Amino acid sequence: xxxxxxxxxxxxxxxxxxxxxxxxxxxxxxxxxxxxxxxxxxxxxxxxxxx
Length: 51
Known about the structure:
Layout: E1 2-7, E2 10-16, E3 19-22, E4 28-32, H1 42-45, H2 47-50
């Protein structure tokens, strides 16, 4: 899955997205995108929880 960022009707950036929802035991219950096993960096991913 890709997300496109547009400005003035032109695509400014395009980002690949992958997500996984897990239950409270850590079992994957739903995925979105093709590469949900890829490692990620928490630096940006945790910002909503730090506020």
